[in-house]
Amino acid sequence: MKMGSLITRTVALGLVLAAAGTMPAQGLLDALNEAVEDPTLPVTATFKDTRIVNVQSNETPAEGVLHFVIAHRFGTLNSGAYELWGLDNAQMRMAFDYGITDRWAVGVARNTYQKTYEANVKARLLRQSTGPNAFPVSVTWYSVAMANGLKAPTDVTPYYFTHRLSYVNQAVIARKMNENLSLALVPSFVHRNYVQTSEEAHDLWLVGVGGRYKLTSRFSINGEYHHYLTQQFEEGFSPSLSLGVDIETGGHVFQLHVTNARGMFERSFLAEPAGSWGDGSVYFGFNLSRVFTVKG
Amino acid sequence: MNIFLSLLLFASFTLANAQQFMTRSGQVHFFSETPMENIEAENAQMSGLLDASNGGFAFQVQMRAFHFEKALMEEHFNENYVESEKHPKATFQGAIKDWDNTWNDGDPHDVVATGSFDFHGVKQDRDIAGTLTWNGKAWEIETRFPVALEDHEIEVPAVVKDNIAPVIDVDVKATLDPR
Fold it and tell me: What are the chain A neighbours of B120 within 8 Å (beta carbons)?
C-alpha cells in the first residue's frame, strides 16, 4: 500500500516535470496569442479608387500623392452605327487630386461637358478599423464647387458669375463588409444658384447607394444608384444609375462603365443625369487613374 | 510528501514562467531588390516569446502593420499579394536547436531556430540561422532569412514580374525581456 502510493507519486512527479518541461514549447504560439492583444488597425482599400463609378468613394490619395484621373463618357449607346454607338462623341474630364495628409485631399478638375470647372475638398472624418477599438464604418466628407464655363446665355439678363455656380456636399459612409464586398451609403445635398425653369428646385437632397464586389484581387464589379428625396425634379431626367468594373494593373486603375449620366461632375450626375436606362440612352465611359508620389 | 509534491509542482510552473522572455516591439524589415524597383517595408510590432528553459521559440507579426514608402505598395501588398484579410498574421513556432543554458555569457552565439514558418496560410518547415546575445537583462535576437514567394503561394502577375524579387530578404531584430 505504502509502496504503491510512492510509485504513484513518483510517476505523478515525473509526469508533472515532463509537462513543465514540454508545455511551454508546445503552446508557445498560443501563449503568445493570449499575451498580445491584436492592435487596432485601420481597414484599407475599401474601394480601389477615389470613385465608385461617378460618385466619390471613401478613399483619398495618401499624403504626398498626386492622383491624376482622365475620364471619358462617349455618346449614347442607342445612337446607332453611324456614331459607332456613341464612340464618335466623347466628353472628357481631367482631374488632379492631391493628398495633403492621409486624411485631407484637395482637387481641381475641368470637364468638356458644359465647360465646367471644379474645385473640391475631401476629408476622411472616421476610418473603419479592426482590433480592440474597432469601428464599423468609414465616413468621408466631400464638398465640391462647380462653375459652368459656357458663354453667357443671351436670354438671361443680368447673368452674373454667381449664376454659373453650383455646390454639392456629401458624406460617404462606407463599410468593407469582407475581403470582396464593400458598400457605401452616400447622402448628397445639391445647390444650384441658377436653374433653367422655375419648376426646378435650387436645392436637391439625394441618397445614394454604391458598392463593389471583387471577383479577383485585381478585378471588381461596381455599381451606384442615387435616389431623389426632393420631389421637384426636372422632367425627363431619370435617377442616376451606373454599373461598371474596376481593373487594376500596377499603378493604374481602369474603371469601365455604363451610366445614364452625361457629365462626370456632381451637379450633372446627381441632379441632371440626361440619359435614361429605359430607352437605351446610356453612355459607355471610363475613368483611368494614375498615382504619382510627389512627396516622400 | 503531499506538501513537498505540491511545492515542487508550483515551483516547476513558476520556474517555467520566470524563464519566459517576451517582446511586443520586435522589428521586421523586408527588402525586394530588382533592377526595376526596390521595395522595402518595416514593421515594429512583432511579438515573440522565448522559453529559456528549453529554447522553445515563437513569433508572430501582423501583415497590416507593415509600412511601405508608397501607400499604393502597401495597398497592393495587403490586397493582392499577402491577402492580409484572409491571412492576417505570419507566425513561426519551434525551438532553438541544441539549447545551452550557458549562452547567457554576454557573447553573441550563432544559433539555428528550427520550426514551422506560417506565412500566407502556407506552412514551411524552416531552419533559420541567427545570433542570440544575453545583454544582462534580456535576450537579443537578430536574424536574416530568405523567403521564396513561390514557397508560400504568393502569385506575382506577369506585368510586375520584373519589379518584385522572387525571393525576399527578411531581417528580424528583437529584444526579449523577462515576462
Answer: none
- Choose among A228, A229, A264: nearest CA to A51: A264
A183 Cβ neighbours under 8 A, 6+ residues apart? A174, A175, A177, A209, A210, A211
Q: Are A182 and A208 in contact (CB under 8 A)?
A: no
Residue B127 within a domain = yes
Q: Check if A197 contacts B (Cβ < 8 Å).
A: no
Q: Domain containing B46 — which CATH number?
A: 2.40.128.110
Residue B11 counted as domain residue = no
Mean pLDDT lowest among A27-31, B6-10, B116-120, B129-133: B6-10
Going by DSSP bridges, is the β-strand pair A91-99/B109-119 parallel, antiparallel, or unpaired? unpaired
Containing structural domain, residue B119 = 22-178
State the total domains in chain B: 1
Q: Do B56 and A28 touch (CB under 8 A)?
A: yes
What tens digit of pLDDT does each residue of A237-273 get? 789 999 999 999 877 899 999 999 999 999 999 998 8
What predicted TM-score, i.e. pTM, was given to this entire model? Answer: 0.85
